[in-house]
Amino acid sequence: MKIFLLVLAIVSSLVLMLLVLLHRGKGGGLSSLFGGGVQSSLSGSSVVEKNLDRLTIIFAMIWLISIIAMGVVIRLGV
Questions:
Q1: pLDDT tens readout for residues 55-76
Q2: What pLDDT is recorded for position 43?
Q3: Is the CB of residue 70 less than 8 Å from the CB of residue 5?
Q4: What pTM was estimated for this model as a whole?
Q5: Rounded to whole angstroms, how far apart are CA atoms 14 and 5?
Q6: Which whole number is the average pLDDT over 51-57?
Q7: Cα(62)–Cα(65) distance, rounded to whole angstroms?
Q8: Phi, psi (5° rounding) for residue 23?
Q9: d(Cα 42, Cα 52) in Å, to the nearest integer?
Q10: Contact present, 65 and 5 (Cβ < 8 Å)
Q11: Which of 12, 32, 59, 66 could hold 28 in an S-S bridge, CB 3.0 to 4.6 Å?
Q12: Average pLDDT of the chain, as a whole number
């Protein structure tokens, strides 16, 4: 159980870092790298941005639950 939670936390944290880097910031971030900085139909609050937001929230919840579960498992000594 400990190994599964550890692997889940590591994988979800790596995916979460990637998803956060893909978000468009004030300066454009890495998301403008793929678009070349050109304004297109994918900018703003499009379906792509909304799905990226949803994926980021889902992986953040998976990461948080796995961290809390690891703490509980370690405390109980299971």
A1: 999 999 999 999 999 999 999 9
A2: 52
A3: yes
A4: 0.73
A5: 14
A6: 94
A7: 5
A8: -65, 150
A9: 12
A10: no
A11: 32
A12: 83
